[in-house]
């Protein structure tokens, strides 16, 4: 006659296994809490916009009373993702159709080359793909999807000031990105 099979042993939680689970849980929670700031630090430049621009004095408004646009440069520290660099950007002080001072970004809205004023053509010309723009920045011809971008200006303390901005390229609708 066969003997009955022994009853399976019931697992009884021991004090040691309880502490093992407790320490494991605490480690997981602490690890997760520490990961949050590290992830934020590592990823924030990806979601942050290009930055670092401010107001720059360009000179007395009377200096820009001539018929042709005047080139000026602004220099600042630029933060782009993880990279911080000192950059110089070209701006053009010109006039709109009603004669008001207007400052244009020199950066072509096509692929970012610097547009230059051609006195012989009385227009801005981008040397890269021959985009052309009127004196007030309006697009005349070529691949750029819009005109040169006007920058915020103010007259304060007897000086003309400009706030440099970056705009999204290759789109018809003007959009500030930094
Ligand atoms: Fe200016 Fe292409 S970058 S026309």
Word description of this protein:
Helices cover 19% and strands 31% of the residues. It contains one helix and eleven strands. It has a four-stranded antiparallel sheet, with no helix packed on it. It is elongated, with a radius of gyration of 31 Å. The N and C termini lie far apart (89 Å). It binds FE2/S2 (inorganic) cluster. The site of FE2/S2 (inorganic) cluster has 11 residues, from loops.
The stretches of 5 or more residues where confidence is low (pLDDT under 50) are: none
What is the number of E strands? 11
The order of strands across the largest sheet is 2-3-4-9
User: Could you tell me the strand content as a percent range?
Assistant: 25-35%
Question: What proportion of the residues is helical, as a percent range?
Answer: 10-25%
What is the succession of H and E elements?
Answer: HEEEEEEEEEEE
Principal-axes geometry comes out as elongated
User: In angstroms, what is the radius of gyration?
Assistant: 31 Å
Class from helix and strand fractions = alpha+beta
List the total number of helices.
1
Largest sheet: 4 strands, antiparallel
Bound molecules: FE2/S2 (inorganic) cluster
First-residue to last-residue Cα separation: 89 Å
Mean pLDDT over all positions? 86
């Amino acid at each position: 006659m066969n003997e009955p099979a022994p009853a399976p042993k019931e697992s009884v939680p021991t004090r040691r296994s309880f502490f093992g689970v407790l320490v494991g849980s605490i480690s997981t929670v602490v690890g997760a809490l520490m990961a949050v700031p590290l992830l934020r630090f590592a990823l924030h430049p990806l979601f942050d916009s290009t930055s670092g621009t401010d107001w720059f004095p360009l000179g007395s408004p009377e200096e820009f009373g001539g018929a042709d646009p005047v080139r000026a440069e602004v220099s600042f520290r630029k933060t782009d993702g993880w990279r911080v660099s000192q950059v110089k950007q070209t701006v053009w002080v010109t006039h709109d159709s009603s004669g008001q001072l207007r400052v244009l970004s020199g950066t072509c809205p096509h692929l970012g080359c610097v547009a230059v004023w051609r006195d012989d053509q009385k227009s801005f010309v981008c040397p890269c793909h021959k985009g052309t723009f009127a004196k007030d920045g309006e697009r005349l011809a070529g691949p750029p999807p819009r005109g040169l971008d006007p920058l915020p200006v103010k007259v304060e303390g007897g000086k003309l000031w400009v706030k440099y901005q970056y705009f999204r390229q290759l789109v018809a609708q003007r959009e500030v990105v930094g």
